[in-house]
């Protein structure tokens, strides 16, 4: 399955390093060429000879040891790799890369890489919950680095239980295979994605909006870019950076988003409507700040244009994917929306469920297709959800082309 693919595995100094032995064994059985880089601390947990025997390649340990070839080693490995995975990824190495520090062979190779890099964190649950680590992960994720969610369970420290365990080796390998085999499958596909909330002004100070953070739409944009797509992001106001390589069209209100989408949609192959667009806007916007006067205030609302419905009427052979954020009757509401708006697929999620709400880093999604096919995804990171959605969207798109 992975013949012709080269994976560089960076092993850091954590108790979970012994599990990486199985990761390398599984990769080799799938035909991948594997090169291992160990930090000095990692050698305290697993002998380099173990990884050397399993990978059939010498283990890189020291930047200043005698080179095994006449190449600049960290550059050579970075160029030969199709993918770099760091497992277990310690808080120390994550912090170094986040800060631009390259003081050993592993961090230097990561900094020189122009291929996907996947961090698989594993550490004590208190360390994983530390806001400094969370900030470092968020920074790297915004720059395009990938992360696997650690597992929850018993820690190495006696009697402790929490989130921070290294995922099972088979799950790590499944993720690596997923990344390696979907590479560039959206090349030459043009994708328009809407994201974030809209704001409907009441006066120059106040507005009506919702809790959407834009994370799901931006994650989809990032995933599509990694798969080779040309991406335009029409986004409401958010506080996250635009993925590098995407064209960003910033809007505020639903009417502005409607105008930009309807002007642009004709040049795209896929239309993915993720934005939480306000259904209503104020009939009248006060030019001045409204002063407090009495115990209540009445604001008259009028309906906003339904962007997805209008696209469904004019989409032609384009693929239209929507989102349905619900708090009750999830599937029946999603199916009704799919039909009414002539969508090809809809991603339904219960925003009241733990791990699936607005501003969460995870999501729990059910994908409903026009033919009635239902795909139920477990709770996973929004990055993983994005790739699952794109997996199905690409299949539908290619099927339509053949037909």
From TrEMBL:
<dbReference type="GO" id="GO:0004632">
    <property type="term" value="F:phosphopantothenate--cysteine ligase activity"/>
</dbReference>
<feature type="binding site">
    <location>
        <position position="337"/>
    </location>
    <ligand>
        <name>CTP</name>
    </ligand>
</feature>
<keyword id="KW-0456">Lyase</keyword>
<feature type="binding site">
    <location>
        <position position="341"/>
    </location>
    <ligand>
        <name>CTP</name>
    </ligand>
</feature>
<keyword id="KW-0460">Magnesium</keyword>
<dbReference type="GO" id="GO:0046872">
    <property type="term" value="F:metal ion binding"/>
</dbReference>
<keyword id="KW-0479">Metal-binding</keyword>
<comment type="similarity">
    <text>In the N-terminal section; belongs to the HFCD (homo-oligomeric flavin containing Cys decarboxylase) superfamily.</text>
</comment>
<keyword id="KW-0285">Flavoprotein</keyword>
<feature type="region of interest" description="Phosphopantothenoylcysteine decarboxylase">
    <location>
        <begin position="1"/>
        <end position="190"/>
    </location>
</feature>
<comment type="pathway">
    <text>Cofactor biosynthesis; coenzyme A biosynthesis; CoA from (R)-pantothenate: step 3/5.</text>
</comment>
<feature type="binding site">
    <location>
        <position position="279"/>
    </location>
    <ligand>
        <name>CTP</name>
    </ligand>
</feature>
<dbReference type="InterPro" id="IPR007085">
    <property type="entry name" value="DNA/pantothenate-metab_flavo_C"/>
</dbReference>
<dbReference type="Pfam" id="PF02441">
    <property type="entry name" value="Flavoprotein"/>
</dbReference>
<feature type="binding site">
    <location>
        <position position="289"/>
    </location>
    <ligand>
        <name>CTP</name>
    </ligand>
</feature>
<dbReference type="InterPro" id="IPR036551">
    <property type="entry name" value="Flavin_trans-like"/>
</dbReference>
<feature type="region of interest" description="Phosphopantothenate--cysteine ligase">
    <location>
        <begin position="191"/>
        <end position="403"/>
    </location>
</feature>
<comment type="pathway">
    <text>Cofactor biosynthesis; coenzyme A biosynthesis; CoA from (R)-pantothenate: step 2/5.</text>
</comment>
<comment type="function">
    <text>Catalyzes two steps in the biosynthesis of coenzyme A. In the first step cysteine is conjugated to 4'-phosphopantothenate to form 4-phosphopantothenoylcysteine, in the latter compound is decarboxylated to form 4'-phosphopantotheine.</text>
</comment>
<feature type="domain" description="Flavoprotein">
    <location>
        <begin position="5"/>
        <end position="179"/>
    </location>
</feature>
<protein>
    <recommendedName>
        <fullName>Coenzyme A biosynthesis bifunctional protein CoaBC</fullName>
        <ecNumber>4.1.1.36</ecNumber>
        <ecNumber>6.3.2.5</ecNumber>
    </recommendedName>
</protein>
<comment type="function">
    <text>Catalyzes two sequential steps in the biosynthesis of coenzyme A. In the first step cysteine is conjugated to 4'-phosphopantothenate to form 4-phosphopantothenoylcysteine. In the second step the latter compound is decarboxylated to form 4'-phosphopantotheine.</text>
</comment>
<dbReference type="GO" id="GO:0015941">
    <property type="term" value="P:pantothenate catabolic process"/>
</dbReference>
<dbReference type="GO" id="GO:0015937">
    <property type="term" value="P:coenzyme A biosynthetic process"/>
</dbReference>
<dbReference type="InterPro" id="IPR005252">
    <property type="entry name" value="CoaBC"/>
</dbReference>
<keyword id="KW-0288">FMN</keyword>
<keyword id="KW-0436">Ligase</keyword>
<dbReference type="GO" id="GO:0004633">
    <property type="term" value="F:phosphopantothenoylcysteine decarboxylase activity"/>
</dbReference>
<comment type="similarity">
    <text>In the C-terminal section; belongs to the PPC synthetase family.</text>
</comment>
<dbReference type="Pfam" id="PF04127">
    <property type="entry name" value="DFP"/>
</dbReference>
<feature type="domain" description="DNA/pantothenate metabolism flavoprotein C-terminal">
    <location>
        <begin position="187"/>
        <end position="393"/>
    </location>
</feature>
<keyword id="KW-0210">Decarboxylase</keyword>
<dbReference type="InterPro" id="IPR035929">
    <property type="entry name" value="CoaB-like_sf"/>
</dbReference>
<dbReference type="GO" id="GO:0071513">
    <property type="term" value="C:phosphopantothenoylcysteine decarboxylase complex"/>
</dbReference>
<keyword id="KW-0511">Multifunctional enzyme</keyword>
<dbReference type="GO" id="GO:0010181">
    <property type="term" value="F:FMN binding"/>
</dbReference>
<feature type="binding site">
    <location>
        <position position="323"/>
    </location>
    <ligand>
        <name>CTP</name>
    </ligand>
</feature>
<dbReference type="InterPro" id="IPR003382">
    <property type="entry name" value="Flavoprotein"/>
</dbReference>
